Amino acid sequence: GAVVSQHPSWVICKSGTSVKIECRSLDFQATTMFWYRQFPKQSLMLMATSNEGSKATYEQGVEKDKFLINHASLTLSTLTVTSAHPEDSSFYICSAASVAKNIQYFGAGTRLSVL
Amino acid sequence: SQELEQSPQSLIVQEGKNLTINCTSSKTLYGLYWYKQKYGEGLIFLMMLQKGGEEKSHEKITAKLDEKKQQSSLHITASQPSHAGIYLCGADGRTSYDKVIFGPGTSLSVIP
Fold it and tell me: What are the chain A neighbours of B102 within 8 Å (beta carbons)?
């Protein structure tokens, strides 16, 4: 079964509103989680590394104030797309690092459509 | 920074044929993931290779890691329409804390 749960799987919102996406590790603690973005017919691009109890590390070109990341517990990281615009429409996928198994597990993804 | 290339970019095969997808890294591979994705859907974990020369199989899919060449190959035997999708390779760092860098993907279509 899935070891990383991502919610919601699909969200439609109006331009200017904020959307929160959750990523949960179900049966292991993840001090590190990652957020990826995927445009149609393109590969996954890393947006940021989410560290439990500290600030996220953003990749070059990713706006910190636009994509707020909170990793408040060892099993939950959230990505909030603030003041969403149509160009933010994309597929967002998270992953969680399992230290015990030295492997990353990926969520099923969230499709965001901004009208 | 590490970059991954995949070849071919896209592939169309007839059902029952064998095929191979290659993934080449610009740097040493400490770990290599293979995922399958259908458009607009999440990633389906296929397998992870961590040791040089390692080979893993799952059903009709076999993947190999050649650290010396900084390459991995994914081989599908007797392809079926259910194998259609996008295959992504991802390079892992030394530990699970390191970010995974993905290749551009290989689109596979299987014609019945």
Answer: 36, 43-45
Inter-chain touch A97–B40, beta carbons under 8 Å: no
Question: CA-to-CA distance for B52 and B69, rounded, in angstroms?
Answer: 10
Min CA distance, A83 vs chain B (Å)?
23
CA A32 to chain centre: 12
Please name the amino acid found at residue A75.
T
pLDDT in tens, A26-76: 988 888 999 999 888 788 899 999 888 888 999 999 999 999 999 988 999
CA dihedral angle for residue A12, residue A13, residue A15, residue A17, rounded to 10 degrees: -150
* C-alpha span between A85 and A17 (Å, rounded): 8
Is B1 an 8 Å CB contact of chain A? no
- For B82-110, the pLDDT digits (tens) are 999 999 999 876 666 677 889 999 999 99
B73 phi and psi angles, rounded to 5 deg = -130, 145
- The reply to whether omega before A8 is within 30° of 0 (cis) is yes
- The residue type found at B43 is L
B99: nearest CB among A40, A46, A99:
A46
The residue whose two tokens read 């050649």 is B66
Query: Strand, helix or coil at A2?
Result: coil
Calpha distance A1→A18 (Å, rounded): 30
